[in-house]
Design goal:
The two termini are 25 Å apart. α2 runs parallel beside α3. The protein is built from 3 helices and 16 strands. The radius of gyration is 21 Å and the shape is elongated. Strands 7, 8, 10, 11, 12 and 15 form a 6-stranded antiparallel beta sheet that branches. Strands 6, 9, 13, 14 and 16 form a 5-stranded antiparallel beta sheet that branches. It has a 3-stranded antiparallel beta sheet with strand order 4-1-5, with helices on one face.
């Protein structure tokens, strides 16, 4: 289980989550938590650290689950969604519509990285395969490709280690798809998970 060391740099006693408890002013506390408790405390720890009230480090005493990774690395993950489009045949890197905007993208407000990508088809593609990828500033990122085989799967997803597929403030993330000669027109829906 992960161990967290917290230093309260404020002049007030702080109570942090049910698993950590009170930390006296200008003192430190070390506790061992389950991954679930660490995840629950993660947002509060990050908020207090950003406010300059605490500093904290987390060490991994054993394999840390994906839930705990959020708090361990101080990662703030969020879903960026709303991409959906009825597919057409024989398209190459066609930009998928976002929300109510034609070919809209997500403009990064700060530097970060892509940590996940998921997609679903309303029905299996017939006659040919379809794939979709995340694009950054108009360039498709091959490592993010999700594949749908003809007559096969209707969902696919991938996760990526935080910091591997990076972006900077102002970069535009979109979703693109490539379809061969598909025999139907299913709807593609996609979401991206980012950490910043």
């Amino acid at each position: 289980m992960p161990t967290i060391s917290i230093t309260n740099t404020s002049t007030l006693e702080l109570s942090i989550g049910s698993g950590i408890g009170p930390v006296r002013p200008n003192s430190s506390r070390t506790v061992t938590l389950t991954a679930d408790l660490l995840e629950q405390a993660g947002l509060e720890l990050t908020r207090l650290q950003d406010a300059g009230k605490i500093s904290f480090t987390v060490s991994d005493n054993a394999a840390v689950s994906d839930k705990a990774e959020i708090a361990v690395a101080g990662i703030n993950r969020k879903e960026v969604g709303g991409w959906a489009e009825v597919l057409a045949a024989s398209q190459t890197n066609n930009v998928v519509n976002r929300v109510v905007s034609t070919a809209g993208g997500y403009v990064a407000k700060r530097a970060g990285s892509i940590t996940g990508f998921s997609a679903a088809l309303s029905a299996a593609a017939t006659s040919a395969a379809v794939n979709c990828r995340i694009a950054k500033n108009g360039t498709a990122i091959t490592a993010t490709q999700l594949d749908f085989t003809a007559g096969g799967n209707t969902t696919d997803y991938a996760t990526f280690t935080a910091g591997t597929i990076q972006f900077v403030a102002g970069d535009v993330l979109t979703v693109v798809y490539t379809s061969l000669a598909i025999g139907n027109t299913p709807t593609l829906s996609c979401d991206i998970e980012i950490a910043d």
